[in-house]
């Protein structure tokens, strides 16, 4: 497994489109409702390209034999009073590669990138009860709270999200 950091989704666009489509269509809550079509996934990757190029966001991609197995993003806060923090976004592992420790590797890699960028506070949210919650807790993230009716699922039901944070200074 190799993890690369890229400033453009073009590096592995087709694999990223497949990853996002697979993740959403298998039930991940990452800002889309299933069924997700490839064109909508492609539009998403195009929409973040400028923030990747300007450096306010970084994209880490896990490659298995040059195939996209997973990805994670970090969005750096640009506010003067928030230059110490960043948001972790869209941790995804393709269903063909799950249960192999890839999510943990991606999370560890993004934490290293955050430290190297001078960030000391990471914040993320996940749909309440998602499997990723256990990973975050095992990785030292503290639950900050739950917001009810935060996201709508594919059946148009409202679901809660849980916020987590991690101080990298500990």
Automatic annotation (TrEMBL):
Gene3D superfamilies in the record: 3.40.630.30
CDD domains linked: NAT_SF (cd04301)
Gene Ontology molecular function terms on file: acyltransferase activity, transferring groups other than amino-acyl groups
PANTHER family: AMINOALKYLPHOSPHONATE N-ACETYLTRANSFERASE-RELATED, AMINOALKYLPHOSPHONATE N-ACETYLTRANSFERASE-RELATED-RELATED
Lineage of the organism: Bacteria, Pseudomonadati, Pseudomonadota, Gammaproteobacteria, Enterobacterales
The N-acetyltransferase domain, residue ranges: 19-170
Listed InterPro entries: Acyl_CoA_acyltransferase, Bact_Acetyltransf, GNAT_dom
PROSITE patterns: GNAT
EC number of this enzyme: 2.3.1.-
Keywords from the UniProt entry: Acyltransferase, Transferase
Name of this chain's protein: Acetyltransferase
Organism (species): Tatumella ptyseos ATCC 33301
Record has Hydrolase as a keyword: no
């Amino acid at each position: 497994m190799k993890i690369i950091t890229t400033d453009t989704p073009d590096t592995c666009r087709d694999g990223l489109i497949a990853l996002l489509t697979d993740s959403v269509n298998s039930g991940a809550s990452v800002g889309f409702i299933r069924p997700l079509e490839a064109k909508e996934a492609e539009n998403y990757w195009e929409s973040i390209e400028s923030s990747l190029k300007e450096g306010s966001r970084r994209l880490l991609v896990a490659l298995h034999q040059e195939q996209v197995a997973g990805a994670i993003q970090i969005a750096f806060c640009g506010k003067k009073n928030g230059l110490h923090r960043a948001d972790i976004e869209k941790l995804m592992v393709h269903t063909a590669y799950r249960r192999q420790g890839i999510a943990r590797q991606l999370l560890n890699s993004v934490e290293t990138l955050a430290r190297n960028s001078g960030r000391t506070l990471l914040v993320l949210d996940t749909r309440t009860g998602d499997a990723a919650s256990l990973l975050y807790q095992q990785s030292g993230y503290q639950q900050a709270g739950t917001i009810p009716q935060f996201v709508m699922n594919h059946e148009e039901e409202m679901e809660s999200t849980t916020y987590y944070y991690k101080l990298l200074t500990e």
